[in-house]
Design goal:
Number of strands: 5
Oligomer: single chain
Shape: globular
Number of helices: 9
Strand content: 5-15%
Radius of gyration: 18 Å
CATH architecture: Orthogonal Bundle
CATH class: Mainly Alpha
CATH superfamily: Fido-like domain
Helix content: 40-55%
Length: about 220
């Protein structure tokens, strides 16, 4: 991967061990490679658990935070908390002073659009792409943004009758597509979503609504099906 796609961070004592780029973690691992491997294993286990027993939520900003907290609870004390340093990967992600406001704007818009349930399948997929791009630009967490937003978007897709699975997409392809989307070019993301999704039955969709949605949202969505 080109160095231009590597992350850069503001240095803060809150996140890294002294004189290193290694994130302070619950496992007290101070070697970057060892932490990477441990994090990958632990988060993979938590991802499997979420697939088996999903979190219920309202598909708002808090739900994204809850997903992040669940996935990274074994590794970082700040799991589920928004970052307090600025992050860039060629492009600068949302500045810390605007994260809450931009985040609320993104998810309030989703609520106003009734979580996309009234759109046809093609429009829904386009809307999912745009939301994915917005959450990527927000990048609210110090680490683990991609994995958290993938779980969120795949879950939202299911309650819209679309089975989306981005797990086979390479890290490199995802980074490039996400970078393009920050600059307003959704072409690669749209192709990625289309090639890794299929329509599911209304019966299965109703099951997913019952599984993923809190009571008030579940009643709202099921009322119009």
């Amino acid at each position: 991967m080109d160095n231009k796609y590597k992350y850069s961070y503001e240095r803060t004592a809150d996140y890294c061990y002294n004189d290193t780029d290694v994130l302070i973690n619950k496992l007290n691992i101070t070697n970057d490679e060892d932490l990477f491997n441990a994090e990958r294993e632990l988060v993979s286990l938590r991802t499997y658990e979420l697939n088996e027993t999903p979190l219920k939520g309202n598909f708002d900003f808090q739900y994204l935070k809850d997903i992040h907290k669940y996935l990274f609870q074994d590794v970082y004390r700040w799991a589920g908390d928004i970052r307090n340093c600025n992050i860039a990967k060629q492009d600068l992600f949302c500045l810390i002073e605007h994260i809450e406001a931009f985040g609320n704007e993104i998810f309030n818009k989703l609520k106003k659009e009734k979580y996309f349930v009234d759109y046809d399948n093609e429009t829904t997929l386009e809307k999912l792409v745009e939301l994915f791009a917005d959450i990527n630009a927000l990048h609210p967490f110090r680490e683990g943004n991609g994995r958290s937003q993938r779980v969120f978007i795949e879950s939202l897709a299911k309650i819209n009758g679309v089975y989306l699975d981005l797990t086979t997409v390479s890290k490199e392809d995802m980074i490039i597509a996400s970078h393009d989307s920050i600059n307003g070019n959704y072409k690669k993301l749209k192709e990625m979503f289309k090639n890794n999704s299929h329509i599911i039955s209304e019966e299965k969709r109703e099951q997913y609504i019952n599984i993923y949605c809190c009571d008030e949202l579940r009643k709202l969505l099921l009322k119009d099906l």
